[in-house]
């Protein structure tokens, strides 16, 4: 049986010509009980369309874990490798504990207090807010009017020691309703985007690559990023830009000597551009906040040097130069017309290609607005493939 795929409804802000191959609703399938034949089609569709939506789903944590693992049967651990249940067995009431005890690869995320949930007597959840992460903040007055920001554009990945998960599954169990909010970029462009309350926003890494001018395409296919050791500890004291697309250069990162024990061998060095295993398309996949260095290969023999950036290759260790370059390459792709804000309904399941999109939490909830989601992603059994020699030739 051929599965039924329907394009996702796009908001008025989106440019439909940029979403032809992005996002599909899968109709008439129970994602918790897929036959091998149906799964093969879902998997194929995921790599082709980057995000799949199933509506009105009933999915246990066990089923969600099994579904997520089916995309990478050899992987085992949660994407960040933290099996909190094992280390906190005696304190399942701990406010920060969000792991489903029976299925530690599935996390409970959201906002407000959730009671008697899948073995958790009480879980206090907090929707991440730009107030705790950005250098500048939306004023209380504007926030009361519904103004908000992207929290942090990212790939779901530990970026240290573990490989970036292939897919993330997000299952909306309790979804508070409220008026639309305005996501403001606050970066002097005047850009803003109307968003449903508590949306998850996605941009295509393929589009991020496709819209680059030739000199940046040439750089992207030759470049690798090196992530900081324990990047989330390293970046913790630093503050993000108002677009949530990277960190302000203020020298606030934790010095490497003050990080928990780390080994250089575990630092991730990943291509800037990742090759889609089904379509062969190139996706610009960089988690800008965690990057510490950029490594650029020289142009291949025979390539035109005119106008080329870093024609002889480079190892860029100046953090400002690294971040400025990445921002120039990534910012165009988060323009309002290129963002898909998902309008969550209860019992929606979204599977997204974590190696093909960037995403962000958006919005702000009041403490009494209870939002409960199950999230699962698994550190992959391999690192993503970069561009082939042919790709590099084509774009340099
Ligand atoms: Fe995420």
Task: Summarize the structure in words.
- The chain has 396 residues and is α+β, with helices and mostly antiparallel strands.
- It has two domains: 4-206 and 335-379, 4-Layer Sandwich (Double-stranded beta-helix), CATH 3.60.130; 212-332 and 387-395, no CATH class.
- Helices cover 18% and strands 26% of the residues.
- It has nine helices and 21 strands.
- Strands 1, 2, 3, 4, 5, 6, 8, 19 and 21 form a nine-stranded mixed beta sheet that branches. The chain has a four-stranded antiparallel beta sheet with strand order 13-12-16-17. It has a three-stranded mixed beta sheet with strand order 7-9-10.
- The termini are far apart.
- The model is unreliable at 83-95 (pLDDT under 50).
- Residues 154, 156, 359 line the site of fe (ii) ion.
- Residues 22-376 form the TauD/TfdA-like domain.
How many beta-strand segments?
Answer: 21
Assigned CATH architecture of the largest domain? 4-Layer Sandwich
* Uncertain regions spanning at least 5 consecutive residues: 83-95
Number of domains: 2
Shape, per Cα inertia axes: globular
Label the structural class: alpha+beta
| CATH fold category name of the largest domain | Double-stranded beta-helix
Bound molecules: fe (ii) ion
Strand percentage, roughly? 25-35%
| Main sheet overview | 9 strands, mixed
User: What would the average pLDDT be, to the nearest integer?
Assistant: 94
CATH class placement of the largest domain: Alpha Beta
> What radius of gyration results from the CA coordinates?
21 Å
Distance between the termini: 43 Å
Supply the number of helical segments. Answer: 9
Helix content: 10-25%
Order of helices and strands: EEHEHHEEEHEEEEEHHEHEEEEEHEEEEH
């Amino acid at each position: 049986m051929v599965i039924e795929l329907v394009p996702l409804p796009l908001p008025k802000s989106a440019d439909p010509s940029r979403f032809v191959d992005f996002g599909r609703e899968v109709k008439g399938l129970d994602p918790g009980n897929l036959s091998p034949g149906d799964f093969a089609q879902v998997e194929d569709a995921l790599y082709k369309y980057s995000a799949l939506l199933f509506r009105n789903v009933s999915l246990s944590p066990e089923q969600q874990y099994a579904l997520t693992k089916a995309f990478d049967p050899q992987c085992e651990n949660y994407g960040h490798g933290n099996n909190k249940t094992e280390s906190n067995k005696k304190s399942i009431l701990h406010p920060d504990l969000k792991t489903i005890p029976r299925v530690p690869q599935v996390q409970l995320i959201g906002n407000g207090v959730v009671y008697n949930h899948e073995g958790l007597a009480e879980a206090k959840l907090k929707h991440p807010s730009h107030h705790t992460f950005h250098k500048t903040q939306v004023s209380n007055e504007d926030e009361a009017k519904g103004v908000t920001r992207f929290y942090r554009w990212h790939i779901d990945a530990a970026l240290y020691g573990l490989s970036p998960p292939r897919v993330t599954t997000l299952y909306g169990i309790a979804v508070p309703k409220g008026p639309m909010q305005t996501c403001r970029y606050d970066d002097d462009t005047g850009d803003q985007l109307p968003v449903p309350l508590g949306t998850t926003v996605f941009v295509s890494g393929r589009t991020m690559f496709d819209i680059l001018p030739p000199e940046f395409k040439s750089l992207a296919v030759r470049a690798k990023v090196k992530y900081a050791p324990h990047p989330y500890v390293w970046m913790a004291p630093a503050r993000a830009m108002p677009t949530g697309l990277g960190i302000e250069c203020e020298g606030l990162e934790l010095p490497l000597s003050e990080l928990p024990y780390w080994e250089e061998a575990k630092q991730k060095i990943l291509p800037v551009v990742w090759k889609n295993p089904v379509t062969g398309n190139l996706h610009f996949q960089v988690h800008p906040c965690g990057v510490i260095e950029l490594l650029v290969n020289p142009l291949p023999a025979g390539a035109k040097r005119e106008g080329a950036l870093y024609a002889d290759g480079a190892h860029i260790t100046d953090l400002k130069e690294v971040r400025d370059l990445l921002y120039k390459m990534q910012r165009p792709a988060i323009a309002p017309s290129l963002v898909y804000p998902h309008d969550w309904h209860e019992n929606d399941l979204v599977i997204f290609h974590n190696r093909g999109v960037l995403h962000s939490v958006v919005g702000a909830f009041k403490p009494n607005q209870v939002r409960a989601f199950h999230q699962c992603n698994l550190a992959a059994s391999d690192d993503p493939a970069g561009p082939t020699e042919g790709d590099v030739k084509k774009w340099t």
